[in-house]
Amino acid sequence: MVPVEVTPWTATPATPATPAARRRELGACLRAYRRLVEPASVGLPAGGRRRIQGLRREELASLAGVSLTWYTGLEQGRVTASAQVLDAVGRVLRLDEVGRRHLRRLVAPEPPAIAPPGEHLRGLAGLLDSWPASPAALLDHHLDIVATNAAWARAWGDPAGHEPARRHVLWLLAAASAPAELLLPVARQFRMAADLHAGDPRIAEIGALLRADHPALDLVWDCRGIGAFGHPTFDLVGEPAAAHLLHPTGRPEIAVLVAARPRPRPRRTG
Length: 270
Fold this sequence. Notes:
single chain
């Protein structure tokens, strides 16, 4: 195992986002996904001149069964919504269950409580030894790296070789030119964390470092994609691998990212 020094932002809870900040993030998310829905895919005529890409507000409101005035207020961060209404909006936007749950969390009455990770997070670092041949990293609620195993260091470098502010999984994967098949789903998880912790200074710091140090990936940093991590497959040092994002404690703010190679098939004998 290759431990990484726990930095000050890893040892303290996330800064709670205000309800207003979370509503603004919800509105930005809805606007981004609305532009991705082709009218024809939801039964609307595709012809004629359209000044905007994707669905109009009034079209989405009608499909979701809500008024245009109310939906406009939702996108502008001025109103709240029930879980049932957000699910209806999310289905029109073609969001999966993870994406719809994210929308519901953004309008929760109180931000989800995040206790300081402390020693129990450090204690989970030993779990990484379970995958001696598979790169694995323990992540906190910002997706900062708390610890990695030796296989991670061989694949994407030792985080301890970088200053603490850059020991973030996205920054390190970008620096190591990790394949897009891995980078994009990790970026989607960071976007969801950024929505939930809007206004958190560490989230803002990470975003600034990504844009300053890896400007060629600005399209990735600008994307507001949300949804399930899935099991992305990619090439890892010339061999196929699949990434998994695990939550060993059941708490969404603590995760293990592991890239597992398929087991070799046993040789036939006789």
